[in-house]
Amino acid sequence: MFNKLKQFKDIRDRAKTIQSALSDERAEGSAGWGKVKIVMDGNQKAVSVAIDGELLSDKAKLEGLVKDAVNDGIEKIQKILAEKMKDLGGLDLAQDMQSLMKKK
Predict the structure, then answer these.
(1) Torsion of the alpha carbons at 94, 14, 79 and 65, rounded to the nearest 10
(2) N or C: which end of the chain has fewer CB within 10 A?
(3) Could you tell me the CATH number of the domain that includes residue 62?
(4) Range of the domain at 38
(5) Which residues pair with 46 in a beta bridge?
(6) How many domains does the chain have?
(7) What sign does the CA torsion over 67, 68, 69, 71 have?
(8) Count of helix runs (H) and strand runs (E) in the chain
């Protein structure tokens, strides 16, 4: 019982370390030839948004470009995170958690 609790604590500590390392990552998504830029962090949250002033007069176009920039940023940060998870052993963490849950 105590061994299992220690294993859960170890997994939780490793997960926190990985989460902390990933939160420092950044990726920029853009659309409209760079007229809309969104920087995403490793938690897939928008950190900053930049919009060229000439787009402010066309609401529909701006909405589409913001959506495209967000999607571009998410795609880029996910690629970075997948590589970083591989480097940090995050996939091993998921496997360890699965095997721990299967044990009785």
Answers:
(1) 110
(2) C
(3) 3.30.1310.10
(4) 24-99
(5) 40
(6) 1
(7) positive
(8) 3, 3
